[in-house]
Design brief:
The chain is of the alpha+beta class. It has four helices and three strands. The chain has a three-stranded antiparallel sheet with strand order 2-1-3.
Length: 99
């Protein structure tokens, strides 16, 4: 993982709820959340799993996406994640065809 990457991430908690955050090291942050030393919200909802993430070139962009995401309803969050996953799959399929 590159040091210049900034991530907006979404965790799915054991109770089915979602938690959104920012980090520059996804694996380390996930480990911290699952060890009980992460956000207060996730401590009582362990284990958590990485549900979705986006990579940005600046911390500001990643944090802006985190803020936007947190203002949405659960339904809109789920729709957004599904749409973004479909876009990534489509892009991957196109890249694979080129090979």
């Amino acid at each position: 993982m590159e040091k210049d990457n900034h991530y907006f991430y979404v965790l799915k908690c054991a109770d089915g709820s979602l938690y959104a955050g920012y980090t520059n090291d996804l694996q380390k942050r996930l480990t911290v959340h699952n060890s009980g030393k992460g956000a207060k919200y996730t401590r009582a909802r362990r284990p958590v799993e990485l549900y979705y993430h986006e990579c940005f070139s600046t911390k500001r962009e990643a944090m802006q996406q985190e803020y936007r995401f947190k203002t949405w309803t659960r339904q809109k969050k789920d729709m957004y994640i599904e749409e973004m996953r479909m876009e990534k799959e489509t892009a991957h399929a196109k890249d694979t065809e080129k090979l």
